[in-house]
Specification:
With 388 residues, the chain is of the alpha+beta class. The protein has eleven helices and 18 strands. The strands form four sheets. Strands 1, 4, 5, 6, 7, 8, 9, 12, 13 and 14 form a ten-stranded mixed β-sheet that branches. A hairpin with a 3-residue loop joins strand 13 and strand 14. The protein is globular and about 60 Å long. The termini are far apart. The structure holds acetoacetyl-coenzyme A (CAA).
């Protein structure tokens, strides 16, 4: 029996800031962002959107197809949690009408936790193959204004159904890990924006790639040239290019720059338009590869490098299944992206500066999102979500 991703669906907010607008404001060359970091736009959540609404909107097509009672558990990965105690997935459980006998857990380890959730879900399905698991990764990436990280913000959620005999990707059990106690990116409980030592974080990312790859190839016996495409964690597109060049160098691949580019370029398309979505970004990259590659990916092996600052990293691989295209949602995803509205710099600042009320009063949220689910009110310190 094989186990892996049976269906994948993502969602992002209905508005974005073009990085050329940010560059103009800063009086710098927009190519620093377009070429230098490989990003064009960053999605900004509206005031009635957060990780819960993004997540529920991402998962809706999957739940509509399989039915809410089919899902045994919801594993919710995020590093921008909205509550220190209650799992954000419990709100999503209600919005999607999941069965009260299904369980919900929130997982955290920076951008890595979606991969922990996928691996846990695979193990759970291996024990009970008739019980599929819904994994959702949802995040809002925020850095201080005028910090180097500002241009690498974004938001998005991805939902994946993990099942036996999956239609899209069989995930192999072998993984390679690297864990190290470092402070490259973190967010103390009293801050809403992440702190980051940017250049150091890129060095630790690359070190973790090398270490987890060495662990993976030793344990699995899979060699570099047996992998056809690579999905890297995508804090920004250029990071994947740096990572892939390094992995090719470590393995003395002798590939041309064009050959290296071909193995990652289709993974970058959606993220270039969304920005960083932390836990969701590598899996939105997978979606981008599956939906935008003009090659038939059947039987191709995809290597994944998942990185979570702090840090925990993992290399693993999966094989694309026959007829995978029939399980994808390319039109829906392209519609979500193409119908977005561009923000002016002032509108971006208005959204950026909104602070969640902390006085316990009644705070209705302006109706802005185009998604099915929205945060209607914060009242008595409670977040109240509704379906439209
Ligand atoms: N045209 C083309 N390229 C240009 C340019 C221009 N006019 N001007 C500058 N560039 C290039 C630079 O040469 C540089 O390229 P290289 O990296 O290839 O040398 C690139 O643009 C970036 O410019 P800077 O070196 O000036 O870097 P910066 O000060 O803008 O900071 C950053 C870049 C450190 C990544 C910053 O965006 C940041 O701190 N981001 C947040 C942290 C992050 O994403 N870290 C990634 C690893 S950690 C992780 O993965 C977890 C996570 O999700 C956060």
């Amino acid at each position: 029996m094989s186990v892996g991703i049976d269906e994948i669906s993502f969602y992002t907010s209905g508005q974005y800031l073009d990085l050329k607008t940010l560059a103009q404001q800063q009086g710098i060359d927009p190519n620093k962002y377009y070429d230098g970091i490989g990003q064009e736009k960053m999605a900004m959540p509206s005031l009635d959107e957060d990780i819960v609404t993004l997540a529920a909107n991402a998962a809706l097509p999957i739940v509509e197809r399989v039915g809410p009672d089919a899902i045994a558990a919801l594993l919710f990965a995020t590093e921008t949690g909205i509550d220190q105690s209650k799992a954000a997935g419990v709100y999503v459980h209600r919005l999607l009408g999941l069965h009260s006998n299904s369980r919900v857990i929130e997982l955290k380890q920076a951008c890595y936790s979606a991969t922990a959730a996928v691996q846990m879900a695979c193990a759970m399905v291996a024990r009970q193959p008739e019980r599929p698991i819904l994994v959702i990764a949802s995040d809002v990436a925020r850095y201080d204004l005028e910090s180097p990280g500002e241009a690498t913000q974004g938001c998005g959620a991805v939902a994946m159904l993990i099942s036996a005999n999956p239609r899209i990707l069989e995930i192999a059990p072998e993984v390679g890990n690297h864990t190290e106690d470092v402070m490259d990116f973190w967010r103390p409980n009293y801050r809403s924006n992440a702190l980051v030592d940017g250049k150091y974080s890129t060095k630790i990312y690359l070190k973790s790639l090398k270490r987890s790859w060495e662990n993976y190839t030793e344990l699995s016996g899979v060699t570099y040239d047996e992998i056809d495409y690579f999905c890297y964690h995508l804090p920004f597109g250029k990071m994947a290019q740096k990572a892939h060049s390094q992995l090719a160098r470590v393995n003395r691949s002798g590939q041309t720059p064009e050959e290296l580019e071909r193995q990652i370029e289709p993974t970058l398309i959606y993220n270039r338009a969304i920005g960083n979505s932390y836990t969701a970004s590598m899996y939105i990259g997978l979606c981008s590869l599956l939906e935008n590659s003009t090659d038939d990916l059947t039987a191709k092996r995809i290597g994944f490098f998942s990185y979570g600052s702090g840090c925990v990293a993992e290399f693993f691989a999966g094989v694309v299944q026959p007829n995978y295209r029939s399980a994808l949602h390319p039109q829906k995803h392209q519609k979500v992206l193409s119908e977005r509205v561009e923000l002016s710099h002032d509108e971006y600042l208005r959204l950026y500066h909104f602070a969640n009320p902390t006085d316990g009063g009644e705070h209705p949220m302006p109706e802005e999102t185009r998604g099915r689910f929205r945060l209607a009110t914060i009242s008595g310190h409670k977040r109240e979500y509704i379906a439209r």
